[in-house]
């Protein structure tokens, strides 16, 4: 019996119709390398890491606040006067996917 094609618990041969799944191991390996790359970046550039983390937190907060603002002003016409340029009118509407 070839040990590469045998079951490790009872040494019975694997069924020939089903090849071993390597999808999980490839994803695990890629996740490990991504985590290692992030850890190496954090250790090498600590200030840049803090700046990137703070930027991500601020962007998440801005996106959340914009979503709340859009829900609050849905369907209403708003105007912004820009001195020296003119007036901008906008309406927030929700598209309907029927």
UniProtKB/TrEMBL annotation:
The lineage of its organism: Archaea, Methanobacteriati, Methanobacteriota, Stenosarchaea group, Halobacteria. The chain crosses the membrane at residues 21-41, 47-67. Keywords: Membrane, Transmembrane, Transmembrane helix. This is Uncharacterized protein.
